[in-house]
Amino acid sequence: MSISPDSHAPESSLARLAPVEAVLFDVDGTLCDSDPLHYFAFREMLLEIGYNNGIPIDEEFFIKNIAGRHSDDTARILFPDWDFEKASKFVDDKEAMFRRIVAEQLKPIDGIHKLCKWVEDQGLKRAAVTNAPRANAELMISMLGLSDFFQVVIIGSECERAKPFPDPYLKALKELNASAEHTFIFEDSASGIKAGVAAGMPVIGLTTRNPEKSLKEAGATFLIKDYEDPKLWKALGELEKDGAILRCQSSVSK
Q1: 27 and 141 in contact (C-beta within 8 Å)?
Q2: Which residues are catalytic, by number?
Q3: CA–CA distances in Å: residue 182 to residues 1, 6, 120, 132, 225
């Protein structure tokens, strides 16, 4: 199934999935506004080693080279001349720093708990699908109070290929016993949107931090500011009105 961005009204884009049976979520930037914390950690640690002649990286550099990418890809981009093991250790150390600061500063995306209640009330299957290390993902999900909400948590590094390849989303469908024809995704990065589109599902893009242009070019079906966005609730309301919800009461093992 192929849906070109903005070629249909948002409600009709989701209505084509009828009946909907599952919803998939990215984590960083999609459940919570964590990119500023990642940016801070990278900026400080790169400064410590004199990266870029001691000039701090800016947000444009972060968005272009780091945001939404798997840690192995980040290591290769930042340190093309380093031994990969050394580069990977730097990125791992940065993730540890991120986990230290996230406990005090993590902020949920506005409306996320309202949306999660809607998903639960509809009896839909749900999974978190992320390129973040499992320790990061589980910490953020726990801090947001969503550990019991997600039936499955899929980690990019535990798949054959991470995003922007479709493998993590395809694995989520398999573990949920759901089909791409009846599932949609929430994502905030071009990398994640490309992965979802490649897996055959429409992706609702969140304009949390990344440029709208890049999200549209990646194939987002439509864009929302956050989970309070009227555009989203209009689309979900259309699904309810049309009875296009497949209530999935069967359990999914975590």
Answers
A1: yes
A2: 26, 28
A3: 10, 19, 16, 26, 24
- Number of other residues whose CB lies within 10 A of the CB of residue 242: 13
Question: Residue 15: what pLDDT?
Answer: 82
- Predicted TM-score of the model (pTM): 0.85
Q: Residue 23: pLDDT above 90?
A: yes
The answer, yes or no, to whether residue 1 has pLDDT greater than 90, is no
